[in-house]
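Worked Example 4.2. Read the sequence first, then its structure tokens.
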Amino acid sequence: MRTVAAAPIRTAVVGFGISGKVFHASLLTANPDFSLDVIVTAQAERAAEAAHLYPQARIVGTADELFALAEDLDLVILGTPPHTHYGLAATAIAHGLNVVVDKPFVPTSALGEKLISRASDGGVQLTVFQNRRWDADFLTLQKVLASGGVGEVTSFESRVEWWRPEGFGNWRDTVSLAEGGGILHDLGAHLIDQAIQLFGPVDTSYGETANRGPHPDAADTEAFVSLLHASGVRTRLWMNGMAAQAGPRFHILGTRAGYTKWGLDGQEPALAAGMPPSDPAYGVDPQEHWGLLGVDGATTPVPAERGAYPEFYVQLAAALRGNGPLPVDPAEPLEVLKVIEGIHALA
């Protein structure tokens, strides 16, 4: 596997919507191990904004223009809709470039296996941006479970729910299921990944999906998933873009106590508002949002760990220089995708 020299890792971001602008460009430019050299967007308004925010970067309109610059790059980050991921990543790998793919990884596990094989054969690194592994609430939950405070886990519930009756206003409203669309692909990629990180491989799965959004021909806008892990733990996961009232983010029951946390991680809105990751307030969950540990009538707030999306790129820089593992092994999102495929086959 080729490694990258000690100079800043020369990087291109493909797409300048929520993924490219809010997440990747913000996190990259906060890390001195990377330079943001190229931004790809075909939309004139986004191109103008990218040029204003990142004057050091070259703004191009097509992937062909990007790959013509491949000799001057080390890394390509794909913040584009899922049906474009395989083709763009395969082309980047063919040009000898390392690749970060946003989730959902690719539309099918067969394409995921091919992409992992191509990266291995090409001697480049391939990883997937599973940023919710570094949510403040998930990091806190891992600490709570490791402490033994709840005892043996008997039930785990996880939710990400929004009230967006008008739709998402982006590719999520129109990309088909076959193209990797739908909330199960989009949020299931996170929630199933988190459940597997906590409780291990999945033995059996069951799911329900529905489209209750404003686009009748679109993929699912809500999903429920039940997983039985090899460890014996049952996890239940909800994701919904049409929830007028959201349930708790996490609700865990154990043989000693329970733990309940409300509210979503605040790193995305902070980045969208322009807060740099170096700000002392970045990733800090306010005390009124802390989860409660205990039994009814005797619960204690658990101080939240600090959210840490920048850690993905800290670990990626080390991996590209041969000093550690990738932040996300692509084989892990591949296993999540297989679970999603199994649920869609029966839903």
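Now turn to a second chain, presented in exactly the same format:
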Amino acid sequence: MNIKIAENLRAFRRERGNTQEELSGHLGISTQAVSKWERGEGYPDITLLPLIAAFYEKSVDELLGCGEMERDRKTSELEEQFKDNCRKGKIEDAIVLMRQALKDFPHNLSFMWNLAWALRFTRKAEYMDECIALCEKILAKSVDDEQRYLTLEIIIDAYGRKGNIEKAKEYANRLPVITCSKDIVLEGILEGEEGIKLSQTNIITMVNLIDNCVMWMLHAGKYTLQEKIFAYETVDKLYHLFLYDGNYGLEYNALSMLWLNIAEEYAECREEEKTINALKKAWQYTAAAEHLEAGRYTSIFSDRGSYSGESVYRSDEEGPAGWMRKRMEKKVFDFIRETEAFQSIGKA
């Protein structure tokens, strides 16, 4: 409470443009007392609160910061509800929550970003215009560099999904090159445990980035089945190289997706046995991701890091297993759908 009074007294004085002497004269006390209140070294007697509030044409609640504290409490609760919905895969609920939150707090940039992120996360075409409009509002108002960069990442993807590549490039040109990112440039400065932890975080991030780069490379070009399988399996080896002890943590999800991609490639060529084997591998990783508990990495390349299944935002309320089952509903697997081997996947 003392802190809020100090902050508000300073803010009200700047807003009104008066001096500490003027308030002290109004109250019949010393200027030093007012100065102490503003520094947070004490607070006014309760009998003075109505007089101070009246001087600034504010309510006592506003002076005490009660309204501000209630606002902070409510926004914190909404933030936690949003995160909880995302962790449970209830993205549509998260969207509804943030839309309503913005009616109550229309200038809250954090809520705008949350909503833009959730709209983009659904990948639904009908949400992209709303997503872009929110991002443009944030970019027009935000002075937080990190928030602006994260917003640019969302709006670039949203324009890409709408097929407006030129607009996506326009926004992408506002971002720094990868070698100028905070995490990269700090590696040459930090030492000891702090430096080790950052470098290990970067190592796993780079493996994830290579995974994504290979996926998009294959998507953009024309490659033979053998080339695609070779590329995917090389990425698989990369995960095993840096997480050589089999403790994959959050990367179980990435490995599951990787082997689902391999299964789809084999399925396109009607390679029944290889498709089934790839699906079985994908399911092994999916099952591990589904039951992931809090823990720590143990590889020399990652042993300063920790993970928790609760920290992952899900695209499906049913979790990794539900997501894989939906992928297995694709028509490409119809040629083996009725086989015993296919139907047994995920049932053990």
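Notes for the reader: The CA atoms of residues 114 and 291 lie 27 Å apart. The longest helix spans residues 192-220.
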